[in-house]
Specification:
The protein is an alpha/beta fold. It contains six helices and seven strands. Helices cover 35% and strands 14% of the residues. Helix 2 packs parallel to helix 3.
């Protein structure tokens, strides 16, 4: 179960492998120039939100994104190992195809890969570890890690949360029985 604490979530900035639709998994791929620009552009949406802690995946693309955000917010970064992207084993670096859908359905696990259900449990554990920090917490991680958040909140944002688009999560309260999710950009609004 997802800890009932408000938090912000940002998927890392763009990488060249994102553009190529390659399965990055736990490969340590750097941000590209667009990814760095996306991280800088996310800063104004996170200012004055009272964020107290930034937690991130240990993978370079998330660490660099968190570093850019942390510098602007004046906050250090806490590395949370369980916020790493899924391990896709021998499929890492390949283009996503039928294997990817089969993995997500639980039908097939590539050699040396993490089973989908085990990954979701680990990702949820990572998010909950981050939420033990002084909040509100900003979590900087991966699209796959966000699937665990979607499953627990019951509010899917689609196939993948966009790179460097901050999302605010507010737990159920006495006046609201479900989680609410707000995408912090232009015309997007609250869900839930």
């Amino acid at each position: 179960m997802l800890k009932h604490r408000p938090f912000y979530y940002v998927r890392h900035g763009q990488t060249d492998w994102n553009l190529e639709h390659r399965a990055q998994g736990q490969q340590d791929v750097d941000l590209n120039d667009t990814g760095r620009t996306q991280a800088e552009a996310a800063v104004p949406r996170l200012l004055d939100k009272g964020i107290a802690t930034i937690c991130c995946s240990p993978l370079k693309r998330a660490r660099e994104t968190a570093s850019i955000l942390g510098k602007a917010l004046g906050l250090p970064t806490v590395i949370v190992e369980d916020l790493k992207e899924a391990n896709w084993g021998v499929r890492e670096g390949e283009y996503r195809g039928a294997w990817f859908s089969e993995w997500r359905s639980g039908a097939v696990t590539p050699a040396r890969a993490e089973p989908f259900d085990a990954f979701l449990l680990r990702a949820l554990q990572g998010v909950n570890t981050a939420l033990e920090c002084t909040g509100p917490v900003l979590i900087v991680a991966h699209g796959g890690v966000y699937w665990a958040v979607e499953k627990e909140t019951g509010i899917p944002l689609g196939d993948a949360v966009p790179n460097c688009t901050p999302v605010f999560h507010e737990p159920p309260s006495s006046g609201r029985l479900r989680w609410s999710v707000e995408v912090l950009q232009g015309s997007a609004g609250r869900c839930g």
